[in-house]
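Sequence and fold
=================
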Amino acid sequence: MKGSLTILFCFVVGVLAGLFADLPAWVTESDLTLWVLYALIFFVGIGIGGDATTLSVLKKSNVRIFLIPAAIIVGSLAGAAGASVFLSDVSVKDAMAIGSGLGYYSLSSIYITEMRGEVLGTIALLSNILREIFTLLAAPLLVAWFGKTAPIASAGATAMDTTLPIITLNSGKDFAILALFSGVVLTIAVPILVTFILT
């Protein structure tokens, strides 16, 4: 719980600073956040490489490791289809297209905008951004309530980059390699799924 509150506090302070503070250009107009993310992933990599047991987890998993991204895809599409029941202006097909973004908001929103228009593309963008933010804020609670693979499922494609450090922190190094693998598979799957659903 403490971890979630700390992340939420940092996020809120960052939003307020962006809104009201006169920040220097090197903060707002540079690739600073991207380099910080690279640094986090680098240190996660050191942690994985320095722990012999983490790679053995991957070897023991065999084909079963594909069950994680497969289950995430099925769950995301089923959840999106179910949510469409409560959204009178969004068809099941369009809802599933949004769900097939799997957290990869930049690519999926571009695809959906081109194929279905700006409104649905914007919904896809916001939906997938919220998925990432939810994972960053709720990872400790997800682990406590649903187990150590829950943040990987919640993160979707972002498990390979932006949410990987928080997954490693809360689920442990053993799950970092699973998160990375799942994130890569889901990232590859996004354009295939979106195109398949909308054509």
